[in-house]
Amino acid sequence: MIKQVYLPDDVPSVGKKILTEAGFEVVIGSGRERQTMKQEGAQASAVLIGTQTFDGDIMDSMPNLKVIARNGVGYDAVDVDAATKRGIYVVNTPKALSGSVAETAVSELLAISKNLYQNSAAIHDDNWNYRKAHPGRDVAGKTVGILGFGRIGQQVAKKLSGFDVKIIAYDPFAKSTNSVEIVDRETIFKTADYVMVHLPAIPETKHSIGSAEFKMMKNDAYLINMARGVIIVESELVTALKNGDIAGAALDVFEEEPLPVTNPLVGLDNVLLTPHIASNTIETKAQMATDATKDIVRVLQGKMPEANVNQLN
Known about the structure:
The protein has 313 residues and is an alpha/beta fold. It contains 12 helices and 12 strands. The protein is elongated and about 70 Å long. The chain starts with a strand and ends in a 13-residue tail after the last helix. β1, α1 and β2 form a beta-alpha-beta unit.
């Protein structure tokens, strides 16, 4: 019997080609809604998902399931313990998107420094003189603090190396380099002009940045979050932005996605909001599809995956 690979969302053709050439049937679904996935993936031996929740209940609706591939690096939406208990591998694509996310992070740092979005919008509003009352800021000479110095954090530091900035980072597992000083967490918030969040979404980091951290930050400092929305206490960030505790923020991720237009963040003029686009490029999506499907093939052929996040006996 031909093994079936279920894709709730379509992926670039390079990924589907890898699966079909390996002899598997590819089933492209019609969406991420829980019941839809349970019905459409009922015969699946493998599933390739995005950021949607994937828990034990959904796994139980797919009795043939051997591997859950995450099309990205974060796997906080997958119940890894439930998968392990059921003998299901969970894999991700940690090498595919670091450079792209870092590019977006630096782009948003520059955008909030120069008020690019607001100035562009002002032209469309026939307000050429908006710029006079809203000057930007130079990045050169500033201190950039990176929370989380893994693959993405290191790529951010590399890409910022030509901007004449001081780079500091907090990561209990990292060591200082010639260009990046590892400091304690408090130093990041107290001294950085830009605090860049590149932490994993784990129980220890959930809601770990809130009013206490915003009060430590300088009034003219910015927060940039490219990691996960759950790391920030959004209501306390809104308060900090309204009160001028910090100068502004650039956010690509949110506690609730899609972000409702009624969310108070949407009405603020000192925040740049983007719809989870940090790795949303043609090249990176193709590489993620390639890496994820290659690990699916390995598992379904009885081999060890390369990027598994759990261990099976």
